Amino acid sequence: MNAGTQKLSLAGEAGVIEALLDLPDTALEGKRGTVVIAHPHPLFGGTMHNKVVQTLARAFVQCGWRAMRFNFRGVGASAGVYDEGRGELADMLAVANQTAPTDQPLALAGFSFGAFVASHALAQIWSDRPVDKVVLVGAAASNFSVASLPLEAHAATLVLHGERDDTVPLQSVMDWARPQSLPVTVIPGVEHFFHGQLPLLKSLVVRHLRA
């Protein structure tokens, strides 16, 4: 955490949701809106403190967004138990409903399992309110049914994947994206957790947010 990070306890259907709100500089605060960021698989060490999740938060904060990270049910101080994506989707929607006012821009982001959950959050939210930006990193398409994205959301969406991802093979993401004609940005030589390449990840997200 840093000086611009606040600890929050939110209400979820399984009980309390532990969360952190990263704030931009005062001069930028409120100019963009709120991004809700979902973390990797809860059963394999995924938390809101994951390095990729923190990098996503920093990129959004740098561009003036409020970045909301949270722990899925059963992780850290969040109540409940792992629910194979169903309850985790409810968690993400609860966080968005409580922290992202409907009269302000909303963005969604996720890494790995979190990208899978974020895709379904987008599909569910889209008909009720606009989502200004979407960032999906290492989407877990080989293990979960990642939702197809609304066609109108494609221009606002950045899908990033490492060429050498041995956790989620690139081919599985291409198979998911191909029927949608959804572009995928492939980063040469990079594996699932972006070891040694987090600055590049951040710069690509910042570029997308400023486009």
Rounded Rg: 15 Å
Mean pLDDT: 96
Structural class: alpha/beta
So what's the overall shape?
Answer: globular
Helix content: 25-40%
Distance between the termini: 28 Å
Neighbour order of strands in the largest sheet: 1-2-4-3-5-6-7-8
Number of helices: 5
CATH topology: Rossmann fold
User: What's the structural domain tally?
Assistant: 1
Describe the largest sheet: 8 strands, mixed
Low-confidence stretches: none
Count of DSSP E strands?
A: 8
Order of helices and strands: EEEHEHEHEEHEH
Report the CATH architecture.
3-Layer(aba) Sandwich
Strand content: 15-25%
Any idea what the CATH superfamily is called? Alpha/Beta hydrolase fold, catalytic domain
Highest CATH level, the class: Alpha Beta
Task: Walk me through this protein's architecture.
This protein has helices at 51-62, 86-99, 113-125, 170-177, 198-210, and strands at 5-12, 15-22, 33-38, 65-70, 106-111, 133-137, 157-162, 185-187. Helix content is 28%, strand content 23%. The chain has an eight-stranded mixed β-sheet with strand order 1-2-4-3-5-6-7-8, with helices on both faces. The radius of gyration is 15 Å and the shape is globular. The protein has one domain: Rossmann fold, CATH 3.40.50. Helix 1 (51-62) runs parallel beside helix 5 (198-210) and helix 2 crosses helix 3 (113-125). The chain is built from five helices and eight strands, in the order E-E-E-H-E-H-E-H-E-E-H-E-H. The protein is an alpha/beta fold.
